[in-house]
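Contributing new records

If you add data, match the layout below exactly. Sequence lines come first and carry their own label; structure lines follow with theirs. Keep one chain per record. Anything else will be rejected by the validation script.
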Amino acid sequence: GCNPAGAAQGTTNDNCLRDRTWRFLRLYTFTGKKGLDQIMQPIRENAPFFLKFVLPDDCNETDKEENLVAAEEVAEALKSGKAVEIINAVIKGDLILRSMTVQDQVTIRRSKIRGLLDCSYATFKKVVSLENSTFEQDVTFTGALFEKSILCNGSVFRGKADFGGIQIGISAVFTEAMFIQDASFNSAQVEQHIFF
């Protein structure tokens, strides 16, 4: 946390200067006929070792639109070696991870990715979980290496999905995934299991 005493002495506190933390709050206001309204705010933490953005299960589309996640912020976090956890949110912009080595776990669940997702020739050292998410534009994983597993069960791919030439060290899970346009898995290599 922040150290006011240290700041007063002119010292820098990395947590104060570099990290932004918004805790989940439930605020209640009385608004006449509407009665008790619940205003929700996300859990958002951009810390030295992880980026976390979680919206409550009961938030509506308006809440999501008011709390968009920038694709550039996600890419920068992964590039710097952070774990990423995004749940029930909307990611705006193209998420470009092309040729990147992603050191930590990637979790994007029950979320919507509005832009392109380009993970071609990227290397993922840990599990990649994209469960129950919606990809509104094309997704490219051409030549990507997953040293562990990729989990896409329940996800919806509205654009083209190219998984050609991917290499997966353990498992690929696409149970109940929907591919609205063409999906390619040409020359994909999975060491243990693949589930559709």
